[in-house]
Predict the 3D structure of the following.
Amino acid sequence: MKKLFAVIGDPIGHSMSPIMLNDVISYYEIDAHYHPFKVRPDELETAIRGLKAIGIAGFNVTIPHKSAIIPFLDGVDDLALSIGAVNTVVNDNGKLIGYNTDGYGFLKGLEPYFLTFTDKKVLVIGAGGAARAIYFTMAKMKPLAIDITNRTVKKAKELIEACPFESNSKSLTLEEAEAYLDEYDVVIQTTMIGMYPKILETPISLRNLNTEALVCDIVYNPLETQFMKEARQKGAAVQNGVEMFVYQGALAFEKWTGIFPDVKRMRENVLRQLE
Ligand code: ATR
């Protein structure tokens, strides 16, 4: 019988996942379909019961349900539980189990640059939901240092305290981050600053950036944020949010099918959708 995969969110109309994942479903000749469903927050529990009742094979979860879904699942993997957010659900013999592939997706996107981080100093900018997934997953990889800067420093401190992995992290004000920026090998911008339409905004000045650094931005609209542009002009390597998006989807697909898909194909598909 044809399997159903899905993504639930609200809004959901602009999700790039259906086109990206239906393409690999047909490429690998899997008898399945991936469908977007708009689920209002007050209907989340009912929607999850419905998906379970119809025997959904797996689904993605996006804004605003990533945290709210946790109590309605039959099980949640430890990392997703500590992050407090689920973006991928697997139907394991009738039990809905939640995972978070955002942080690992981000890490996989860095493989062309680094395979390990034990000699790298990392700076995370921001302390929201995306920062949480990236910071916890990265802290698990035991980088030499991983510090957080945020407009509201208290939130950076809280994130560090909540991290289940030994990190020795420091929280920094934005001004401190600007002053000590040359110490960092990897700088990860996890906020929506610089996203369309406010494309000229940047979270911090890059005047002290280490020109050998890798600067990542989770934003992909525009494909090059002002922050990335300034980093590139200083000679740093840059990466946009397309990689994290593509790899979180690839890891979800792997959890559902056992196949790690052709990421190049998925990236090209996403770039076509963003054109
Ligand atoms: P998400 O879950 O999508 O990551 P979020 O939880 O609302 O979003 O977090 C947004 C992040 O962007 C926070 O780190 C926020 O900083 P504060 O904690 O100080 O609010 C940061 N942010 C958003 N707009 C900002 C701005 N104009 N300048 C600096 N930081 C900003």
Notes: The longest strand covers residues 3-9. The CA atoms of residues 46 and 203 lie 39 Å apart.
